[in-house]
Amino acid sequence: MERKIYDLGDIVQMKKPHPCGSNEMEIIRMGMDIRIKCVGCKHSVLVPRAKFEKNFKKVLRSSKEPQSE
Ligand SMILES: [Zn+2]
User: Fold this and answer.
1) pTM, rounded to two decimals
2) Residue 37 alpha carbon to ligand 1 centre in Å
3) Hey, which of 10, 31, 34, 68 has its CA 20 to 30 A from 56?
């Protein structure tokens, strides 16, 4: 069972790619609802947390742990 860990500023991958073709989204606001911004076309969307977690796949890049590679 995979734990779902995500935080503000993380780049996450969703199960369904954005219509523009990019599947990388940046979390730009967290609360009752989560605002994510498409890395490809910069379009942002506000989704309820439950819906976000349903569509969330994994964190690609965490804002808290800088990765050397
Ligand atoms: Zn997009």
Assistant:
1) 0.84
2) 8
3) 68
